[in-house]
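Internal tracking record. Fields below are filled automatically when a chain is submitted to the structure queue. Please do not edit lines marked as system-generated. If the sequence contains nonstandard residues, flag them in the REMARKS field before resubmitting.
Queue: standard
Priority: normal
Entity type: single polypeptide chain
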Amino acid sequence: MDEKEYKAKRAKEVAQLGAGETEYKYEYAPELLEIFENVHPEMDYWVTLNADEFTSLCPKTNQPDFGTIIINYIPDVKMVESKSLKLYLFSFINSGEFHEDVVNKIGKDLVALMQPKYLEVIGLFYPRGNISIHPTFSYAKDEEKYKEIEKYRFLNRNLNPQRVE
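SYSTEM-GENERATED OUTPUT FOLLOWS
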């Protein structure tokens, strides 16, 4: 497939990107997520996506919770389109859920969408009551090398900085 054919194919795969007007959803909306084909599925490489202004609501107090969501994954055949991810993450703005639930929901939605080789979602929520919460979701395909990555990352989660600046 030449470059022109690739661009035409990719344009058909994603509807949000390049759309004239953006419609924001104010309630959890996983249907906003879009994918496109990975043109390098034979390779293992990392994709890191940082959402530094993530907001949801505390389910008990209804007060806003702020944080950073970090998504690291090794794509297989499908990849998440970044604008659709931004709109999806924004849809949590009025969603009353605990931090751990938010991170697990995002992780499960992305696994169902992409079926990546490996995926982790890290939530770095700002302190409330002097305690910050940093839940992590991880998923690995059944292939041994991805299970090893998952095990290593789980056991050594706090060895590396979790914030990419």
